[in-house]
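cron nightly-structures :: item 1 of 1
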Amino acid sequence: RRRIRWTHRHFWPAPALAAGICVGILIGGACVNAALPFSWESGTTFRAIDAGRTLTLHPRGGKNAFHVFLPVPRPDEVVRPLLRPLALAGFTVTAVEIPPGFDELDRAAAAVRELSAAPGGRRTVLLGVGEQQAIQALALAARMAPEEAAGVVAVDTPCTWPFEELSPEVNLVKCRIPVLLLCHAETEADSRKLGAMPGVSVLVLPSPEDRRVTDGEVIGTCLQQTLNGGWKHAD
């Protein structure tokens, strides 16, 4: 019986096939990215924040005059529920990793000032969604001058907090920029109490009839309506 001696010449189709598959995957990925209505950028550079802790989505061809700054514990966890719906609503949005608490709020405030001074002419809007991030957004807003941020939107913020640095009641007194409190029905009472303060507006988020509509989409729609209507500086 004759034995076949295998040489490298017999294996040449394998690497060629693998290379073809890799090229196909790359081309397919490029086509999918090109078809998306937004582009994404990991590692937005701030002098105050490490680049690895940021994630930005840009709407393709979007002319929105606002850039949303979103403090979150982990940017990768809010892509689908928040970043994507906001980008689809026409906003450039940057999620920045800020741990819960007030230890890194000064760094975050410096990043907001960098963003507002960047070329392009977009005005920065602070957004905090959920209890911890809402009080952080309000604490950041208390540090901002009117020329540094167009306003702050806090979703489901509590009325009180044990630490003064993060207390919504304390920080709203210091705010010099417009404040919009969005809330669900279960947090409306707290928001209404805070809404009695000067320069603070309250809007109850509607419960969508279509269960497939996400909170992020509802927030994006509310932002569009509020910002397109024009915000005036707080008194």
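cron nightly-structures :: done
The chain has seven helices and eight strands.
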